[in-house]
Amino acid sequence: MLQCIFLLSDSGEVMLEKQLTGHRVDRSICDWFWDHAISQGDAFKPVIASPTHYLFQVVREGITFLACTQVEMPPLMGIEFLCRVADVLSDYLGGLNEDVIKDNFVIVYEVFVTICYVLFGILRKAIEVACSFKWMHC
Q1: SS3 state at 66
Q2: Over the stretch 104-134, which tens digit does the pLDDT of each residue have?
Q3: Contact assessment for residue 119 and residue 2, using Cβ atoms and an 8 Å cutoff
Q4: What's the predicted TM-score (pTM) here?
C-alpha cells in the first residue's frame, strides 16, 4: 500500500504532500529522489528502489507525481494510480503547471485527497477480488 504521495515542481520543490497511512514518510526521500533523477539524466525509470522505500513516479507537464511505500506491491498498481490522479487533476484544472497548482492549492488538495481515497480504494478492491477469484479456482 502506498504510504505517501508528493507533487514536485520541475525544480524538485515539494508543492503538495499527502500522507496516506499512520507511518509518516520524511520529505528527505524527495531530495534523494531528485538527486537520483538528475544523476540518471534522460534514463526515465517509473519505479526506483531507494535505500528505504520503493518509489513510483509519473511526470506530466513538468509536474512529478511521486509515491512511496516500504512494502512490495504490484508496480503497475502504483503507476496506474498516479496516472489516474494526474489525468483527473489535468482535466479538472485544464492543464498542469506549477502556477496553476499554486493558484488553486486548496482546490487541488481537496480534489487530490478525494481522488486518493476513491481511486486507491477501487484499485485495492479490484486486486482483492482478483486474488479471491484466483484462489477459488486453483
Answers
A1: strand
A2: 989 888 887 887 777 667 766 776 766 666 5
A3: no
A4: 0.82
Using the CB atoms, write b or e for 6-25: b if 16+ within 10 Å: bbbbeeeeeebebebeeeeb
C-alpha pair distances (Å), 136 with each of 17, 66, 122, 129, 132: 39, 35, 21, 11, 6
Q: What is the DSSP letter of 23?
A: S
Residue 138 falls inside a structural domain: no
Specify the 3-state DSSP secondary structure of 69: strand
Nine cell digits for residue 98 = 506549477
Determine the Cα–Cα distance for residues 136 and 16; give it in Å rounded to an integer.
41
Which residues constitute the domain of residue 24?
4-133
Burial 67-96 (b: 16+ CB within 10 A, else e): bbbeeeeeeebbbebbebbbebbeeebeeb
Distance between terminal CA atoms of the chain?
Answer: 25
Q: Is residue 87 part of a domain?
A: yes
Q: Please count the structural domains in the chain.
A: 1
C-alpha 120/C-alpha 130 separation (Å) is 15
